[in-house]
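Example with several molecule types.
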Amino acid sequence: MPEKDLIHLTIDGQRVEAPRGTVVLEAARAAGIRIPHYCYHPGLSRVGSCRLCLVEIEKSPKLQPSCSTPVSEGMVVRTGTPQALENRRSVLEFLLANHPLDCPVCDQAGECELQNYYMAHGRYDARYNDNKSKRKKATPIGPRIILDQERCILCTRCVRFTREISRTFELGVIERGHRSFIDIFPGRELENRYSGNIADICPVGAMTDRDFRFQCRVWFLGSADSVCPGCSRGCNIEIHYNNRFNPRYHTRRVERLKPRYNGRVNSYWMCDEGRYAYHAIDAPNRLSRPDPGPDGASGEDAWSSAIGRVAASIKDAVAGYGAESVAVVASPQMTNEELFAVRRLFFDALGIGTIAFRAPAREEPRSDDLLITADRHPNSRGAEILLPPGGGVGDLLRACSEGRIRVLYLFHHDLTAGYDPGFIRSALGRVPQVIFQGSWSHPTAELASVRLPAAVYAEKEGTFTNIQGRVQRIRAAVPPVGHSMPDLAILARLGAELGAPLGSDPEAVFDEIAGSVDAFSGMTYASLGGGGALLKQGAGA
Ligand code: FES
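Resulting structure tokens for the full complex:
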């Protein structure tokens, strides 16, 4: 940034530089100084209404709102003077005067800014002894959100979200002065495609998430940074998992998803479809162990038996009918590392040229101009770059129905979603060996002779390439369910059986990609950082 656009100021005795136009609160945050605030949210317009963020600014006769005061050259800011502290305490006393004593039963406990700021800055002896005002409690206002008006502090973040981000205008401030309250407009429901964000931005327990309500106390949650696999936008997320042993799954499992800030991808938001899709991770139709072989092997032995059978059928088909008798349908749900391994094994080592990855979708694409894209896969860009150019799934299915394919290796897809189920049954019925590697059982998986259970995105490491060409990391939050394994580990075992050694460590495979695929050159897991990196412009595979 040019020097002329940088402003120099002092905050709490610390010399700070900030871009021109930055507000004091953000300049302080960047310098590691946290100023308490409620109504301010960096993704929304500023209203300066809660007055909690007031600080002393030299030469100003009274306290100034740090959330709406831009930095200026030579400014001297003090955030912890007796006057600023007294203001915080007074604001909290006003806000809590009518606040119900819900903390023991409030779902926000542990991440409630009223609790946190009271403990840090309030701690006064209550002077308000009258009856607290009564408002609507625990009222569902849409499929995702419950409103508790008594807990609301009228920061209006939720109202501004529906006006500025979702642009659906369901919420408003009703009445004036001390009678004000937030409510849904008559006849409306809060059912926009981004409504879950309202629970995220509510600093108290007024707007809570119906899905997560009473599922887990937040202090039992661990977190892993990842990327939503719901569409090609690649919204940055945190996967929150229950840190305690869950007897139902014999291990810890995912409890909720939260958006993670990435100014170049999703800002502070994510859509509801992606947010609540985590339920599929532990859905009853998860494939959690390989089918027992003819020998009845189970557990680890079942894996050896299944891999052995798959390798033998591929070897036999290639030896007896040529490499063109084997076809592969990879999936844009797979990571870059896994797609690269598919290429290395099937194309480079075995000479199999029929590798498709695009299959028609179940639903009509429903994109919007905020985050949701029409492509419901997180890694179509990666598949385009890393897989050899091939025919579509349609051509491949025609070859199956004409009896030209001896082994079909299918990753993840449910082909009955985009094709007539009768056609799929008859086409796959002409293939002597259908191998399915994926995470869920569905009509296509049911047609396979061997099913290899694969881990989902929350159970493995790797990278996706989003619609912009941004390569972003996903991280394992929980262990793979049952005996399932990441696709990369399954491919490595199959490669070893077929005499084509492949790496099973995602980071080492990514280094191999960066060393051999021009578009990824120079990238490492470390260089991707938290926000990812763009593919090299104009580079091919
Ligand atoms: Fe500054 Fe509310 S955060 S006035």
